[in-house]
Amino acid sequence: MEMPISHKNSEGLVPCLHDLLHSDEQSCSSSKEEQKFSGSPPCPDDLLHSNKQSDSSGRDRHKSSGSASWLDNLLNSDEQSCSSKKDQRKHSGSAPCLDDLLNSGRRSCRSSRDPQKSSGPQKRLEQLLSQSGNKICADCGSPDPKWVSISFGVFICIKCSGVHRSLGVHLTKVLSIKLDEWTDEQVNTLIDLGGNTAANKKYEAFIPDDYQKPKSDASIEERSDFIRRKYEQKQFSNCDGQMSCPFPGPRSTLSSSCSSHCSPQDKKQYEKQATRHRIGNAFRNSWGRKDTEYKNNKKSNSLAAMVEFVGLIKVNVVKGTNLAVRDVLTSDPYVVLTLGQQSVRTRVIKNNLNPIWNESLMLSIPEQIPPLKVLVYDKDKFTTDDFMGEAEIDIQPLVSAAKAYENSTITESMQLGKWIAGQDNTLVKDGIISLADGKVKQEISLKLKNVERGVLEIELECVPLTQ
């Protein structure tokens, strides 16, 4: 085997490892001196020693301070280095480093999130309201409308909103600009529909010369007649954007004509309504919901639209407790509220005998105040919904308390009255009417009637027409 060539020193001896290391250190030492004067790059040994010294000094500082970590020092030195490099780039005009790009990305991301925070549903709704066509009621021209028909995308006044609400949510769903909590999806729908200008261009395209649109001081009869003709019967509509529906004519002729000339969306609305009536009539039984309890017929609908309203009632259906079983072991309950000819309902909660809805619904209060009827049903997919109990709420004390407060100068929270539990009602306890934060409210717990069990908790709030 061939041995490697060895280098001998001046004495003819092979150098030992100690000699080699010392000679290497001396060589590096001399190279350091040369680097000081020549400005050449440091040797690897310099880098290693400097790193050891830096690490050692860093550990000493960490021990002496006891709070700041050596990692913080390293990051700070890196930030200072990057900062000095940024200053150099500002003067030299060189390309940005990765840290610059990351920081600019973070700033850009923060700035893009900020507009979303400042432009929530309520802010966007106010921007829509500020548009010229939306500053007056779409149906009577009253200034400063505070209500919206989300179905037709129009801003309306409080009086016209009562007529809309009487027509039923299947035709026109009404929301308050201030009292209801809006979602981005609802605002997007309103934007897509185009507001008052676009809606009136469609639904008032062909008003006859001898027919006058109601004004802000119009009677309830005039409003009702116009709104029903405009939205329900579509007598003034430009149905396909180019051709108008025949006018005048009986409602049946108008409906068939619109089905052939109107837009697909209008067709779908008519077809859906007819189908719902057919299915409802086919599956009626003794447990099922009756038409007169939830759905208004044509005659009662027309009468409801003629009613004068004195205020609004906001009903928060809180929860049910120990409700009746209508399926095998449980139920799918929902609540229907009826005031006069108006009806609204909550969402269905699946497989729950102690459902928590916490859902607010709005109804107009007629001049002749009827009781608020509460009905609970179990949702069935293939058969008629099963009855799960009912109750009635006398809202007269709440309305009287709200009127008294409206004419007073009371500002502090206090009890205004109560609905006393007794044999003539199904109250679990007295329904206290209180004033809190300028709102007249009443909390009510009801035992459901005509059923084996069940309690319903409801919160009422009386809203004056000025809101």
Account of the 3D structure:
The chain has 14 helices and 13 strands. By secondary structure, the protein is of the alpha+beta class. Among the domains are: 121-232, Arf GTPase activating protein (Annexin V, domain 1, Orthogonal Bundle); 291-463, Immunoglobulin-like. A hairpin with a 7-residue loop joins strand 12 (439-447) and strand 13. The protein starts with 16 loop residues before the first helix and ends with a strand.
Shape: globular
Q: What is the terminal-to-terminal distance?
A: 106 Å
Largest sheet: 6 strands, antiparallel
Q: What low-confidence regions span 5 or more consecutive residues with pLDDT below 50?
A: 1-8, 61-68, 109-118, 240-265, 267-305
Number of strands: 13
Secondary-structure content class = alpha+beta
CATH topology of the domain at 291-463: Immunoglobulin-like
Strand order of the largest sheet: 7-4-13-12-11-10
What order do the SSEs take from the amino end to the carboxyl end, as H and E?
Answer: HHHHHEEHEHHHHHHHEEEEEEHEEEE
Q: How much helicity do the residues have?
A: 40-55%
Strand percentage lies at: 15-25%
CATH class of the domain at 291-463: Mainly Beta
Computed CA radius of gyration, to the nearest angstrom: 39 Å
So how many helices? 14
The overall pLDDT, averaged over residues, is 74
Instruction: Supply the CATH architecture of the domain at 291-463.
Output: Sandwich
The name of the CATH superfamily of the domain at 291-463 reads: C2 domain
